[in-house]
Amino acid sequence: MSTLNPDPITQTKVNFDMAFKPKQHTETDTFSIQLAHRDPFLGTLHKERQSKPKIRQKTETTWIPVLYHGIITETSGKNKVFIVSISNKQILMKQGQTISGISLLKGNDTSITLRYKGTTKTITKT
Questions:
Q1: CB–CB of 45/35 below 8 Å?
Q2: Residues with Cβ < 8 Å from 117, sequence gap 6 or more?
Q3: Whole-prediction pTM value?
Q4: By CB atoms within 10 Å of each CB, which of 40, 80, 100, 121 scores lowest?
Q5: pLDDT tens digits, residue range 82-103?
């Protein structure tokens, strides 16, 4: 046998007439998953807490006497200043400003919305 002229390789035919037939698997594997409420770090079981509905006691807030007199705006309308009387003292307030515990949330030409001790109230122009 020489490396320059190798002998021709003879090929043999293999019969592939057999077909693949997998086994019929009729049995189904059943299982169920149970929740284990165990803390993996502490090793203790977790107990679901039943939350009690929180009952809010409505406390009636007595408002300081507040009157809305009007609005002062620039010609561009960007800066709005509201004329408000708090405890019979006339005050100029801007939106977001707090005076005597009363915060001016928003307002327009006809009404303003105020917040005092967590309660909101809309006051119309007098």
A1: no
A2: 61, 101
A3: 0.53
A4: 40
A5: 999 999 999 999 999 999 899 9
